[in-house]
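Ticket #4471: complex job returned nothing on first submit. Input attached below:
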Amino acid sequence: MALLEVEGIGVRFGGVVALDGLSFSIEEHEICALIGPNGAGKTTFFNVVSRLYEPTEGSIRFAGQDLLSLPAHAIAGLGVARTFQNLALVPGLTVLENVMIGAHARTSGGFWGSALGLPVRSAERRTRDDAMGLLGDLGLAAVANRPAAGLPYGTLKRIELARALAARPRLLMLDEPASGLTHAEVAELGATIQRLRDEFELTVLLVEHHMGMVMSISEHVVVMEFGQKIADGTPGEVADDPAVIAAYLGAAS
Amino acid sequence: MSTRLRWALFGVLLVVAAALPQFVDAGTVNRLSEVLWVAVAALGLALVTGFNGQISLGHGAFVGFGAYVTMILTVDYNVPFALAGVIAVLGAFVVGVAVGLPALRITGVYLALVTLGLAVLFPQLVVRIGDITGGTVGRQLLPRPGYGDSALLEELGQRKFLGQAGFRAPGWSGLADDQWRFYVFAVVALVAFLLVRNLTRSRIGRSLVAIRDNETAAEVAGVRVDRTKVITFGLSAAIAAVGGWMFAVLNNQVSPTSFTITLSITLLVAAVLGGAASIVGPLIGATVVVMLREVIPADSQRFSQVVFGIVLIVVMLVAPGGIVGIYKRVEASVQRRRSLASTPGPPDPSGPDESAVPARTQEA
Ligand SMILES: Nc1ncnc2c1ncn2[C@@H]1O[C@H](COP(=O)(O)OP(=O)(O)OP(=O)(O)O)[C@@H](O)[C@H]1O
Ligand SMILES: [Mg+2]
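Support reply: We reran it on our side without changes. The output follows.
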């Protein structure tokens, strides 16, 4: 059974049809790339899965469960974590605290317990150690206690990745993780994503314009244009697809 | 600041607080008690506005609520002060939640305006229900010392005044009333500050800041944004009501003029001046504000409003993090200079990869 099953999802913003009957599915443990020209609806799809946008039609099942019946704050607990195309870090917290926020859904401790401080101490330490471990893993240990604001862009992107991993998700959704990175950083990121997939037994949904990275690390590629799916297959299959070539040439002109 | 230094300073503060009332006159002790109630009320405001980003210009109303409930319960129902405080604080939590619920739908400037309305309405509401609040002149918590004449007691008796001894130092303490009151306040404030400190350093505290800075990020991480905001508003109102209880106990007199918009602004100044997203900020801010009020003549309330308004604007423009923020900035720059001196920093990553198709920016 597929981990994520998307069926006929439609999203409208006034007159704009951002998603139009989008259907595809992702198998557990694969790296699936979702590509398409600017404005194709990729980020919109992420926001539908995050329950930030309400689709007008369609269904999404995650591990067999009806995802659209859940509120936004329950999605992380279900096992879906993501990064944001334009970064959504919390500047008022340190890098470490930003990563700890990622663990919110799988940790406990409410207002009263937290205020009294006693019962949550050890849980807090576990969360902290785990976040430190992830930061170390991604080469961010040195900035752990710095405020999350004002660090280099590539660093901020990796912090977002660490935060998503802190949720220990089954499905990791990355929205253009390579944008703004240098050549060397992009190559390293590709290898990192593959390593994390194995290490954390993840399924990855990758939105990326960097074709070199997409073609080298993904096993499955879904191509979108104007909110619709125009191709779906292995990297080799979609690269030769005339509709895909037309879409990309059209976008480039 | 290292943790050890922080605890050392905290210890010094405790020792000074414990010793001070023994060496200064009653008037000064009462000033210190005033600092404490303003600090606690500002702490409540700092929690909701500084940490959680819900701007409230109406927290004076919650202080007033705490003070009035304390007064009415102790005078009319002979409820002991401690119990009256607990009831006032729980009541304020409920009222705070009731205000916080509609606050979910409004943010920023609009929330500021609505809470401003709360501050303006409160004194009028108090006057409207003058039977129990004493109307525009307010009421006293006890017969003033020396007012032992039977006519007054009789009158008070008709108001079901059961002759509670008031907030007096117990005999075993060997303390004067003002000293006893200060020590009680110090313990209450200490508990309030410790609880809020624990809260802000926890999983919940992180979610408060996340909601303030990036609600979407918080929600995607699994934070129940609405629920958290409402509870925070309620808690903040409850803490402000603790300040109100302290006010009533300190002044033995509760009247609507004490809880006008001026108080709400004063609390905001105290919180912002000290550093609204910090724990010691409200204490520092309250100290400065009480000192400022001291030097501004009491008969020029307008003038003091202007002064506070100017202080608020200047702080917002020059040092949005308040006094604590200035300290942190200095500390950070000292640390950076030190670390630069010891280890050469890594070179900054060069520009973006040209081969990546530039993506149009899009809000998530
Ligand atoms: N909140 C919104 N309100 C109105 N229109 C929106 C909103 N979000 C997205 N859209 C529109 O939906 C369409 C799809 O946008 P989306 O951001 O999903 O594209 P994308 O595939 O992520 O593009 P890019 O590669 O540039 O990130 C665009 O026409 C966009 O303008
Ligand atoms: Mg996008």
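The two ends of chain A are 40 Å apart (CA to CA). Closing as resolved unless it happens again.
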